[in-house]
Amino acid sequence: MVERLRKIGFAKLTSVEDALDLLFSNTKTVNTEEIDTPKALNRIIAEDIESEIDVPGFDKSAMDGYALIAEDTFEASPNNPKFVKKVGKIEIGEASDLSIKRGEAIRISTGAVIPNGGDAVVKIEDTEIEENNIIKIYNPVAPGKNVAKQGEDIHKEEIILKKGTELKAEHIALLSSQGIPKILIRKRPRVSVFATGDELVEIGEPLSKSQIYNSNTPMIANLVRTYGGEIISEATVKDDKSFITEKMLQAIPSSDIVIFTGGTSVGTQDYLPEVVNENANVLTHGVAMRPGEPILIAHKNETLIFCLPGTPVAAYVGFLKFAGPAIRKMMGAKETDPRKELIAEIDKDIPVSRMGYLHYLRVYLEIKEDKIIARSVRLKGSGIITSLTNSDGIIEISKEQEGLKAGEKILVKLLPI
Amino acid sequence: MVERLRKIGFAKLTSVEDALDLLFSNTKTVNTEEIDTPKALNRIIAEDIESEIDVPGFDKSAMDGYALIAEDTFEASPNNPKFVKKVGKIEIGEASDLSIKRGEAIRISTGAVIPNGGDAVVKIEDTEIEENNIIKIYNPVAPGKNVAKQGEDIHKEEIILKKGTELKAEHIALLSSQGIPKILIRKRPRVSVFATGDELVEIGEPLSKSQIYNSNTPMIANLVRTYGGEIISEATVKDDKSFITEKMLQAIPSSDIVIFTGGTSVGTQDYLPEVVNENANVLTHGVAMRPGEPILIAHKNETLIFCLPGTPVAAYVGFLKFAGPAIRKMMGAKETDPRKELIAEIDKDIPVSRMGYLHYLRVYLEIKEDKIIARSVRLKGSGIITSLTNSDGIIEISKEQEGLKAGEKILVKLLPI
């Protein structure tokens, strides 16, 4: 069969959608762990979080000024000020039980408790204090003005964060404002990365003609980190069936994901398909996408195995489409594809070389007046890393499309950051 | 003067642009350090990188197939194949000195050296091998087809990365492909963060009425990390002039940046303006932006001091506009504001409360057919953290604008990730 494949290429290609369905239906969630809330940046929360308190916990002032009864300020103006009497002061953090009646006011700081009876705050800039604690009010306020009502932001027992949310600074602030010291998150999936190829030389070694430096493991390892995984093993492997088999069997028991690059197509030294076939369950080999056609996805028990093409751009795209989303799916992330999207106009006609394939087009973006123009990055092959470093994002041209027409609106997925 | 300020508010506000100019002209770059290339994810490179080699380093095959002379394939078709003779084989990584003449072909793998004399590669799927090493060619190739020429991606001595670039997986791949083992990056700016306020209670402590949990230091500390800085100190401080002075003077010598939240406005317990005035050089106090008006920016020698408002959203916006960009400027980043931008349509009229201020509007985004709709997040005050956790991005309404009109195209800056 392998010989046949080598000659005819992939007899049958799986669509990207079907490959993703197959992959996700074989992707298991990793275990949870507890973490201190302030240290949870970029982690995926594993439980819904319910509010334990009203926020604010009490009616509080949103301004520095005077708490009073709004009606006492009605029709106040710079030329015709209203007068109230200052009867006390409430500082931030002070559990005051002061109260006020008509004609009275209490000096209050932003964030302090509104006194009983008070229903609005006049800001300090709109007042002047006279002798005998008489306050002149130069501008009226409506009831509720400059008061943050108890529970107006969050009601007790409301769900404030859904499981699967990736925690950013603002989510950590929200959890902190609730006094929640620890939360349950998903562990980082453990990932092993191997680049196969007799032509690969490690950084720092001398390079002879016919050889290239290994750039795939540093690239994939850093994409794994960007997507939230943890690298537990990283190496280059010669194109030798027994070496590859050994590395794979060693890595599987301790890894949630094993990623190979290179050796997955139909070349004479592409041993990976054989090795994976003999030692794991192949989910798909050959996906209708360009670049990335030779991608192989398999699993052995709960460990996923990805064999990505050796050309860097194809490996990159294959990671973004399959391995990266699998890492996020393992962590229970709501968004398995974390890339941000925008709408742009393509600058010129882009024909595709062959329909039936999903084509990935690298583009850079320019803001021009009130629209964003996407320009295709000039490139020849999928080995050209500068086509990535010069890009802002990637457009997917679906298998039903003959290409793109100049001026067409297209969805751009920004490169992951 | 302080008393006057407390009464009248800010007599004079600085525009956001002027405040940023003042800040940047007082921002010094931090020192450099060397790092192993594969470990440089998200770091800012401190030097231009010149290519040390041609990439590819030799003419190489972009396909598995036969290297040959293109002319020998002209007019080949499935019904009328052309014939060549296989005279050898070149594997990946093999430093072959084989050469070919008209009528000859060499079996070659993707990535292997093109033999002398060969100018194209026919892919294996378009061929069939007969007895006596005769190869049938079913499809023609043009000269250069499936050949990656030496130097076509990168010429030796070309600048491949500019200083100030933030290194992502693809940049690390590019450096690795050049065999560059170490690079010079900027150190992480050292940042101290303090939240001031008598009302603040630490996570895990019991909360009484009038108190709130401190959410500002966890939020700002994680924003600092997101922007590339390193937290060296983090605490809450009571509203007490001598405590605040002590914390500030302790922090300055070991910090590149000191950030306070709270106590920076004109309230009776807002001691920060006094403390900073007495111990450092104030660059600006009071910025024409909402939220965020009471922002104070100062420096003491090379240490920058930011006093952000205590309400979380104002602190967040103040960080995004000033403290965050200062961290990136210290690292020599090309982009001091790392947020991604897109163009959307605002869903409805948004009036602004007062012209002359830059207004920050939090929005969430929806993709609707071929455009993105920005919807304003409903909110009351700037203390409401859920207005951030429910947002995708922020719109800036300039001080000259009266507001936004429904359907207007607007630039949205996505929240930092």
Plain-language structure description:
Two copies of one chain form a homodimer. The first copy, chain A, is of the alpha/beta class and 417 residues long. Chain A has eight helices and 28 strands. The first copy, chain A, has a six-stranded mixed sheet, with no helix packed on it. In chain A, strands 16-13-17-21-20-18 form a six-stranded mixed sheet, with helices on both faces. The first copy, chain A, is elongated. Mean pLDDT of chain A is 92; it is low at 1-8. Chains A and B meet through helix 1, helix 3, strand 14, strand 15 and helix 4 of A and helix 1, helix 3, strand 14, strand 15 and helix 4 of B.
Task: Describe the SSE topology.
2 copies of one chain form a homodimer.
Chain A lengths: L1 H7 L7 H9 L7 E5 L12 E2 L9 E2 L3 E4 L13 E9 L13 E5 L11 E4 L3 E3 L4 E4 L9 E2 L10 E3 L7 H9 L4 E5 L3 E7 L3 E2 L10 E2 L2 H12 L2 E8 L3 H11 L5 E5 L10 H8 L1 E5 L3 E2 L5 E5 L2 E6 L3 H19 L10 E6 L3 E2 L6 E11 L2 E6 L9 H4 L3 E5 L5 E2 L4 E6 L3
Helix pairs in contact in A: 2-7, 4-7, 5-6
